[in-house]
Amino acid sequence: MSSPTKFAKRYLQLMGLLFLVYGLGYTFFPLNLSEVVTGGILTTPSSVTHVRATDGGLNIGLGLWLFICARRNVRLGALGLMVVLASTIASRGVGVFLENHSNAYMYIFLAIESYLLATALAVWYKVK
């Protein structure tokens, strides 16, 4: 196995772990995490359920998908990660622009997501 492929597998495993932990956090602690990240509170049972499903379930699914891709198709995993990160950056950017008042976490997340997008692009490019 070539060095770029070995690095790409480890990268996808690390990203999978990151998304899995993030998703589990939102699945089991949606009230706490939402308040810390957004500065607001979830006020209805449906809002808590929705956050568990979207911030929790979707991130758990992505994390598991990245683990699968690390074993079976590294290039596809990197491509999928790029698509998810690019759409997240675009949607967060729209929110920051339209709401015209976001807390520091939104800008920190934009920076982290942009960095991760660049690294996913590098992994995708290096692995043939």
Explain what you see:
With 128 residues, the protein is an all-alpha fold. The protein has one domain. It has helices spanning 3-28, 30-38, 45-72, 74-99, 104-126. It is globular. The mean pLDDT is 95.
Radius of gyration: 16 Å
- Secondary structure category: mainly alpha
N-to-C CA distance: 12 Å
Order of helices and strands: HHHHH
Helix content: over 70%
Discrete helix count: 5
For the biggest sheet, the summary is: none
Assign an overall shape: globular
Number of distinct beta strands: 0
> What is the count of distinct domains?
1
List keywords for this structure.
5 helices; 88% helix; mainly alpha; 128 residues; globular
Short description:
The protein is mainly α and 128 residues long. The chain is built from 5 helices and no strands. α1 (3-28) packs across α2, α3 packs antiparallel against α4 and α4 (74-99) runs antiparallel to α5.
Strand-helix topology:
Layout: H1 3-28, H2 30-38, H3 45-72, H4 74-99, H5 104-126
Helix pairs in contact: 1-2, 1-3, 1-4, 1-5, 3-4, 4-5
